[in-house]
Amino acid sequence: MSDEARRRIYDVVCAIPPGAVASYGQVAALAGLGRRARMVGQALRALGGGADERGREVPWHRVVNAQGRLSLAGTTAGEVQRQLLAAEGVLLDHRGRIDLGRFRWQVE
DNA sequence: CGGTTGACTGTTT
DNA sequence: TAAACAGCCAACC
């Protein structure tokens, strides 16, 4: 994927406010990438949990799948994501899902 | 060039 | 509800 596309993805993710979450597909659409949700996953994976190539901190933990579940559930990174979200007041229910009706980012 | 593999998603069982 | 399927498309052999 182009560096341009990656940059636009990070721009969108950086715009997600604390305490809210967006789905991969939502980020893709807002970044002008159509339905390429998987591409968003690739870009976030490239972050390796850290900052982007320009040293910018990207709130990757605020991106979850369309079912309100953490695609990284079951992994160490998934646990980190769960805690980062909890610190912002975004909690998972007893089935490991986020109430999207309440926490989904609404773009103004 | 061709096959496989996903930080995905919407539809159909 | 949940699992199976079918599109999807860039990265990586």
Short note summarizing the structure:
With 108 residues, the protein is mainly α. It has helices at 3-14, 24-30, 37-47, 76-87, 100-103; strands at 22-23, 63-64.
Structure write-up:
The chain is mostly helical. Helix content is about 45%, strand content about 5%. It contains 5 helices and 2 strands, in the order H-E-H-H-E-H-H. A two-stranded parallel sheet has the order 1-2. Helix 2 packs across helix 3. The longest helix has 12 residues. The mean pLDDT is about 95. The protein binds a DNA duplex (13 and 13 nucleotides) through helix 2, helix 3, strand 2 and helix 4.
Q: Whole-number radius of gyration?
A: 13 Å
Helical segment count: 5
Termini separation comes to 28 Å
Coarse morphology: globular
List its traits.
108 residues; mainly alpha; 2 strands; 43% helix; DNA-binding; two-stranded parallel sheet
